[in-house]
Specification:
Layout (H helix, E strand, L loop, with lengths): L35 E2 L8 E4 L5 E4 L14 E2 L2 H15 L3 E8 L5 E8 L31 E6 L5 E7 L23 H12 L4 H12 L9 H15 L3 H15 L4 E6 L5 E7 L1 H10 L2 E4 L3 E2 L6 E8 L5 E9 L4 H15 L5 E4 L3 H10 L10 E4 L1 H12 L1 H5 L3 H9 L6 H14 L7
Parallel strand pairs: 11-15, 15-16
Antiparallel strand pairs: 1-2, 2-3, 4-8, 5-6, 6-7, 7-8, 9-10, 10-14, 11-13, 12-13, 13-14
Pfam families: FAR1 (PF03101), MULE (PF10551)
Protein name: Protein FAR1-RELATED SEQUENCE
InterPro entries: FAR1_DNA_bnd_dom (IPR004330), MULE_transposase_dom (IPR018289)
Length: about 450
């Protein structure tokens, strides 16, 4: 998913020498000698006027001016292309591979590398109705003649046969070169950052801002916000409809590395994941120690998959929540809950003493049906969650009574008391109901 052969961010970004040093001009004789500054064109270049009034822009660069380009020899064509690509990155333009020539023995003898804006875009005159429409882009070809040609020698090397440095368009400025496609490459570190942020539901905007803070500025990131979004899109496309299968494969690997890891799943006739249960070795160990009472909360519904996430949770000796097991269910029915409870008993090997759930009619049937004494185990007690009950006070009685009066405070005195007996609770409950005149409220 994350490749390791990524090119690193260009070394010229953030360098102390800058990009304003001069590279050999290479201006031909048909250009007048009066060179002018082209900073008003948005690039740190110089331009000259030909006899026909055409402007030709000469790029400026730093490290590559130390040698004469026309005298260079390369051991391989890959190194030659890498040099010209770096030359374009520092000069303010991008390059691409073009035509080539081979001899009778199918050996490459000539290779052209040109500016990405070389040539012209194809124009549809309407004569062909089945022409495929291409996506509109900002960058368009304008017939730029800048190029470099390498020729093969008998010593298995390539030397510069021709080098054209003139451009018929302004080049990218020093501050704008970070947005060139050649300078926008997602490194392995950035890919890992986007992938890790996606796993914890951190959006692309925040992850891009975080990368900016780590790198010391947007110009040092080596990518734009659009690149972050495209990578996130590609990750989702890579997963596609294999997300369920990828999870099952991961569980298989976890079970091979840990014998105590337990999982079970079920699919529908269309091979869609409908039920999933898993329990880690630590969770199963925690159940042996703290599994007397547990809570089963099935009120969380995932947004993307419309699956119910329900964890089996308990409390340790430090009053901290510990998770015994978890499950994903596509329906809140007796069948699905019974399936999850059955695998929980199979994974743990025993019933819990007490289970706390919300007021779900399906659980009212599934809990006593599974956590029973049929298999020789001690039957569990089923109780309702107090938090869910108190949340319904506002729905049933309204916010005015629950928030603008001391009704809830007086009611909590009898609800949250652990030492109160049944008769005292009933008398206190009736006293509060009578005080606020709720005897006739259904």
């Amino acid at each position: 998913m994350i490749t390791t052969d990524l090119l690193k961010i260009s070394d010229n970004q953030g360098s102390s020498c800058g990009d304003s040093s001069r590279i050999s001009s290479g201006v031909s004789n048909d250009v007048s000698s009066g060179a002018c500054s082209a900073e008003n064109e948005g690039a740190i270049t110089s331009y000259s006027m030909s006899r026909g009034g055409q402007r030709y822009f000469i790029p400026t660069c730093g490290d590559l001016n130390c040698i004469s380009v026309k005298d260079m020899v390369f051991e391989s064509l890959h190194k030659a292309y890498k040099f010209y690509k770096k030359y374009g990155q520092q000069s303010g333009y991008t390059v691409r591979k073009s035509r080539e020539k081979k001899n009778g023995e199918n050996t490459l003898v000539l290779k052209h590398f040109v500016r990405s804006r070389e040539g012209f875009n194809d124009v549809n005159d309407g004569s062909f109705s089945n022409v495929v429409k291409r996506r509109r882009t900002i960058s368009q070809r304008c017939g730029c003649k800048a190029k470099i040609v390498f020729k093969y020698t008998s010593l298995d090397r390539f030397f510069v046969l021709s080098f054209v440095e003139k451009h018929n368009h302004p080049l990218a400025s020093e501050t704008g070169r970070q947005f060139l496609r050649a300078n926008r490459e997602m490194s392995l570190g950035l890919r890992t950052l986007v992938f890790g942020a996606a796993k914890v539901n951190i959006g692309n905007n925040k992850s891009f801002s975080f990368a900016k803070e780590l790198m010391g500025g947007y110009s040092n990131v080596g990518a734009t916000l659009r690149d972050f979004r495209n990578l996130d899109r590609d990750l989702k496309c890579y997963v596609g409809e294999r997300d369920g299968q990828m999870m099952i494969e991961k569980f298989k690997v976890m079970q091979e590395t840990s014998v105590s890891f337990y999982y079970a799943y079920d699919v529908d006739p269309a091979r869609h994941l409908m039920k999933l249960f898993w329990a880690h070795a630590i969770g199963r160990r925690n159940f042996e120690i703290y599994g007397d009472a547990q809570s089963f909360d099935a009120t969380f519904d995932t947004n993307k998959y419309n699956l119910i996430f329900a964890p089996f949770t308990g409390v340790d000796k430090h009053d901290k929540c510990v998770t015994f097991a978890s499950c994903l269910l596509s329906h809140e029915s007796v069948t699905y809950y019974s399936w999850a409870f059955g695998h929980f008993v199979k994974a743990m090997g025993q019933n819990h003493v007490l289970i706390i759930t919300d007021q779900c009619p399906a659980m009212k049937v599934a809990v006593p049906g599974i956590f029973s004494s049929i298999n020789g185990l001690v039957a569990s007690k089923h109780r309702l969650c107090m938090w869910h009950i108190l949340q319904k006070f506002r729905v049933k009685l309204g916010n005015r009574l629950c928030k603008e009066t001391d009704f809830m405070e007086k009611m909590k005195i009898y609800i949250w008391s652990s030492n109160i007996d049944i008769d005292e609770f009933e008398r206190g409950w009736e006293a509060v109901i009578k005080e606020f005149k709720l005897e006739g409220n259904k």
